[in-house]
Automatic annotation (TrEMBL), chains A, B:
InterPro entries: NUDIX_hydrolase-like_dom_sf, NUDIX_hydrolase_dom, WH-like_DNA-bd_sf, WH_DNA-bd_sf, WHD_NrtR. Residues 9-142 form the Nudix hydrolase domain. It comes from Compostibacter hankyongensis. Pfam families: NUDIX, WHD_NrtR. This is NUDIX domain-containing protein.
Length: 235, 235
DNA sequence: ACAAAAGTGTTCTAAGTACACCCATGC
DNA sequence: GCATGGGTGTACTTAGAACACTTTTGT
């Protein structure tokens, strides 16, 4: 089995950073670590790479096992590889991030699994270097969302333009002009207006929209520039 | 040492994809693999992650050991992790890419080290999944270069606008209007015009420019859009 | 004198931004 | 009838794209 002589083998872990949106604020899914060290502290959902799987497979397996989720937007981020990052044993961790519509899975996740949603603004301190991994993931999410329509992953099938605007404002921690926002969004021709309205947050009600799934899949990589200078977000 | 019981340890490798530009065409640095299997075949510059180093450290160490290069633009790309990608033993490889001014290091590299430059268009087939890793790296390079002034890493200290345009045209395999190109480039205020000219490729001669190093470092993340729709490049 | 590459300016179009009022409804 | 959030249009500014002629100089 060990055919390259004189080399060190080590553990490869996958840690999943899962963002959820409930219509108002951005949240993060965390679990209480079930084994030593740091047992009982909050942690990202993680696991070790198995002999017969790729990293993508491992990320999907771990996400499913710990949350029941399948088929979500899952992106490989940078690796965490400082030699002492796991005090127990040398482990290189590969970060993945996922985006989900929180309402869709809220009960399922919190009842069947020992995971909890935290407001990003009220996130507890995490084990090892997980805090930094989350920071990086947020930065990457913001960056990606400037150029790609990924944020729709965080909304229900039917949503209103004000809700969508809330989401963008939550992610960028800023305010947009609704006229310009609506015009930009609709100019993508990615949304289909519905006949019915959501009256839960106003008397007048706001029209529901649905994603045009075909166009969404096809145009995923040609979106628009929501944020004038996306670059400051990466540093 | 093995304190997480029941888990598989494996090798973590770093492979470096090194791009060079000689003023005309984009090249790739390869070495002949020195050990079995696939000994004697062309390969990326790689090595295994050592116990006491991070991945970034390993990439820099390997690059220096195999080429003598230090302090170049080195970016972590995605991992290659298919279970059978290395037929000898399970290995996860982390790809890094670097950009260098080929003329600056040409002799050093090819004499002291057993590495060779290949025109990208005439690259031989590589071992394992290295061909795919190179493809991904090119795609990422093109994408990054649409928004960041990274391509200056590929040019000498003094260069002319036509040479810079050649570089962009080589990377995107396309043609630009020189009026628009010059205007765009100069509008960044990142270049400082020199008094002397390069007469090697015309009678009239083209003015040299130098990078304003301070502005380059500061403005690295606010560049311009050279390529109308950068997104098709990622897939 | 001419070939070969360098350099330069204007017009048009598209996208972003700023900005203010009317609409529909539940209370 | 009024308070609340939803919806819409216009003028301005900026950036990109298309496009052709003049300049320099070695031969």
């Amino acid at each position: 089995m060990h055919k390259y002589p004189g080399q060190t083998r080590l553990l490869v872990a996958v840690d999943c950073i899962i963002f959820g949106f409930d219509g108002d604020a951005l949240k993060l899914l965390l679990i209480k670590r079930g084994f030593e060290p740091e047992k009982g502290k909050w942690s990202l959902m993680g696991g070790f790479l198995q002999p017969d799987e790729s990293l993508d497979n491992a990320a999907n397996r771990i996400l499913k096992k710990l949350t029941g989720l399948e088929g979500v937007f899952l992106e490989q981020l940078k690796n965490a590889s400082a030699p002492q990052r796991d005090p127990v044993e040398r482990t290189v961790s590969v970060a993945y991030s996922a985006l989900i519509d929180l309402n869709k899975y809220k009960e399922q996740i919190s009842s069947e699994y020992h995971a909890e949603w935290f407001l990003l603004s009220k996130k507890p301190g995490l084990i090892f270097d997980h805090d930094k991994m989350v920071e990086d993931a947020i930065r990457k999410l913001r960056y990606n969302a400037t150029m790609h329509p990924i944020l729709f992953e965080l909304l229900p099938d039917k949503f209103t333009l004000p809700k969508l605007q809330n989401l963008y404002e939550a992610i960028y921690d800023t305010q947009f002009d609704k006229r310009n926002f609506n015009r930009k969004i609709l100019s993508t021709a990615l949304l289909v207006k519905q006949k019915d309205k959501d009256k839960s947050s106003s008397k007048k009600g706001a029209y529901y929209y649905k994603l045009d799934k075909k166009k969404y899949a096809a145009n995923f990589r040609s979106f628009l520039h929501f944020i004038p200078n996306p670059d400051h977000l990466l540093r």
